[in-house]
Amino acid sequence: MKEYKFYGASSCGSVRPLESVAAALPWLNSPLDLYDALSDGLWRLETCAPRLQDRWASSHCTLGQCSITAFLVQDLFGGLVYGIPREGGTFHCYNVIDGARFDLTSEQFGDEAASLVYDDMYPQSRDVHFAKEEKKQRYLVLKALVEGYKG
After folding, report:
1. Could you tell me the pTM of the whole model?
2. Is 98 domain-assigned?
3. 76 occurs within a structural domain
4. pLDDT tens-digit profile of 119-144?
5. Rounded to an integer, what distance in angstroms lies between the CA atom of residue 108 and that of residue 92?
């Protein structure tokens, strides 16, 4: 069995896609399948946050992908998006669905990931995040890539 290193990987395998999504994306059975697709080339430089693009590489593909990924997970599986406060007033986003707490993009933090506090204290709003047009556009690109993925 494949070893996943993102936060909460062991708790999200039983999370299932929304009924409306399952028929459209038959390859998607859990967030683990989504992670596989994203790390197989769907996370790209063009979907990375602009301020981090100079550090992005396919070998470090989760960098700058957190909010657009977390809201895409919400679209596909439901649940809530929460944030972890970061320097500069930003938030790192993650998902909570039916008691499963996971962060598909936690690997971007390397050793620092162990110090992230997933306490569900800061609910995140799609409207606030997507008020930034560039972020909304990156999300739409990622969403289209996932919808076109064949597994």
Report:
1. 0.96
2. yes
3. yes
4. 999 999 999 999 999 999 999 999 99
5. 11
